[in-house]
Automatic annotation (TrEMBL):
InterPro entries: CheY-like_superfamily, HATPase_C_sf, HATPase_dom, His_kinase_dom, HisK_dim/P_dom, HisK_dim/P_sf, Sig_transdc_His_kin-like_C, Sig_transdc_resp-reg_receiver. Gene3D superfamilies: 1.10.287.130, 3.40.50.2300, Histidine kinase-like ATPase, C-terminal domain. It catalyses: ATP + protein L-histidine = ADP + protein N-phospho-L-histidine. The modification 4-aspartylphosphate is found at residue 54. Keywords: Kinase, Phosphoprotein, Transferase. It comes from the Bacteria. It holds the Pfam family Response_reg. Residues 6-120 form the Response regulatory domain. It comes from Belliella pelovolcani. This is histidine kinase. Its EC number is 2.7.13.3. It is an enzyme of class 2 (transferase).
Length: 362
């Protein structure tokens, strides 16, 4: 195929078609059509960079032709040849995005050459951007799939190690040996927690939302049972209040990412010496908006870090219990679902996260 810019020119006068082709054939690959219908057939079959059409033609006008062309082949850049009397329809076509530019008749050779070259540059830039976007989507999808698969592959052996360690502790008599197995259990627990973070990262960064009907009571109860199994929570006063009287639609996985990470932070960043630890979770659903609030009386977050805590791998405390991923994933999930997140916290005075999420179905 020729490397020349491929131009389709539509005009209902043979003389104009011949003149156009003769004047520009050395610089461009010119294809001509005598009317709009023929032009549309060519556009279905040929690769085109630029399409030029006369406004005044029998049957379809130039603007009407471009409206149909956009449905068949929207990629070529469109130029309209017109007289001054047609300016209103030209402006309308430009505003609708159907036409890149218009050229007055009779056209000037250098003017139309430059217009074609500029239009072709736009076409090639858009095509390059489209190709890069497609490659980026592919890489993003493959990376997410890699993380997801790797996480599952790692959890199997990890659970085996944890199980063997627990059996060994039941049979061991030497306190020193039991202490070693406790260290193994602690390490496997931390690694398992990090794997879960990777899965949450995969879920939170997915661009598309998988929308389903949400029952907040069910989700919160399921998550709370998992938290109790993992952490015990016997030394913390847990208060749950879910008020949902209407249907709500959202991404279940991303909601769990939000709840998991905020609850996890509320638990991990409690004051170690406190005898009155509490975590309060409130969910209110009203007028197709869900408000989720998690409050604790833990160590709090210094105000100077409030704008930074949602950054990837940022830690606002020296306590070495976090990966620096949690709040980043919360913010990503909230953003992906069109919501907002608000932080209220003072050092040594606890933290409140308030999240508002719109229903993703009318």
């Amino acid at each position: 195929m020729s490397n020349k810019i491929r131009v389709l020119y539509i005009d209902d006068e043979d003389n104009n078609l011949n003149s156009f082709k003769a004047s520009l054939r050395k610089d461009f690959h010119i294809i001509t059509a005598i009317d709009a219908e023929e032009g549309l057939k060519i556009a279905e079959e040929e690769e085109l960079h630029v399409v030029i059409a006369d406004q005044r033609m029998p049957g379809l006008t130039g603007v009407e032709f471009f409206e149909k062309l956009m449905k068949i082949n929207p990629d070529p850049v469109r130029i309209l040849l017109t007289g001054y009397s047609d300016i209103a329809s030209v402006i309308d076509a430009i505003n609708k995005g159907e036409v890149y530019r218009f050229i007055d008749k009779p056209w000037n050779l250098e003017q139309i050459k430059n217009a074609i070259k500029n239009a072709a540059e736009i076409y090639l830039t858009k095509r390059e951007l489209k190709d890069k976007n497609e490659r980026l989507k592919k890489v993003h999808s493959e990376m997410n799939q890699f993380v997801y698969s790797l996480s599952h592959e790692l959890r199997g052996p990890l659970m085996s190690i944890s199980g063997v360690s627990k059996l060994a502790k039941m049979e061991a008599k030497d306190p020193n040996i039991i202490e070693y197995f406790d260290m193994i259990d602690s390490a496997t627990l931390r690694l398992d927690d990090f794997i879960y973070k990777m899965l949450d990262f995969y879920r939170s960064t997915k661009i598309d939302n998988k929308v389903s009907k949400i029952d907040f009571k069910d989700i919160v109860n399921q998550q709370l049972e998992a938290y109790k199994e993992k952490w015990g929570l016997d030394d913390i006063n847990i208060a749950i209040d879910v008020n949902q009287t209407s249907d709500f639609y959202s991404d279940d996985a991303k909601l769990r990412v939000i709840l998991n990470n905020l609850f996890s932070n509320a638990y991990k960043f409690q004051k170690l010496e406190s005898e009155s630890k509490f975590i309060k979770l409130t969910v209110d659903v009203k007028d197709a908006v869900a408000t989720v609030k998690i409050e604790d009386n833990g160590i709090g977050i210094d105000e100077k870090y409030h704008t930074e805590v949602f950054n990837l791998f940022h830690r606002a405390t020296q306590r070495n219990v976090g990966s620096g991923l949690g709040l980043y994933m919360v913010k990503e999930s909230v953003t992906q679902m069109g919501g907002k997140i608000q932080l209220e916290s003072k050092l040594d005075h606890g933290t409140i996260f308030t999240i508002t999420l719109p229903s993703l179905k009318g």
